[in-house]
Amino acid sequence: MKKDEILNASRKEHRNKDLAEMEVVYQAGSHASRVGALVCCLLSLLSSVLAHTMIYSPWVIYFSIIATQWLVRFIKMKRKSDLVLTVLFLCFPFWHLLDLLATF
User: Are 86 and 53 in contact (CB under 8 A)?
Assistant: First the structure.
């Protein structure tokens, strides 16, 4: 294969996306997940110390985002372990929603 054929095949395979750009997007998502978990921890700690109550809303949002990431991985890669993690991560938001509805 010539250099041009290899480049064209690579562009077609990656849909004209740069591999370096794809890696940066992946790392940004990974860092964003960690920062989101840290913010949820800080909010939970502050509400516990200042208001003597536990707020679950940030955790519901966080676990919904994480579950969506794992669901996309499952759809793209068809790994059953990704589906299991999606279900596990969705259990918390649904459990909290049911708990919230039961209080009304």
Answer: no
